[in-house]
Design a protein that fits this description.
This protein is 97% helix and 0% strand. It is mostly helical and 72 residues long.
Length: 72
């Protein structure tokens, strides 16, 4: 019966390994979706920061023009 037990144990290990691989595949698919979402979020943040930088630079330029007029 030892041989039968060894065969049964090996088959059990194969089935368990396959189940773990299936779970890993599902987790990796979820992680890929999460990474795509993060990439989209970063892109949106980059756009917002660029707009804010433009507003700040425009305000700084306007302030420097006003100071020159006062000094003249």
């Amino acid at each position: 019966m030892s041989t039968f037990g060894d065969i049964f144990g090996a088959m059990r290990q194969v089935i368990l390994t396959q189940a773990r691989l299936d779970q890993l595949d599902v987790r990796m698919t979820r992680m890929a979706g999460d990474i795509d979402g993060l990439a989209d979020g970063i892109s949106l943040l980059r756009d917002r920061i660029s707009r804010l930088e433009g507003i700040i630079e425009g305000a700084a330029m306007a302030a420097s023009r006003q100071q020159r007029r006062i000094e003249e």
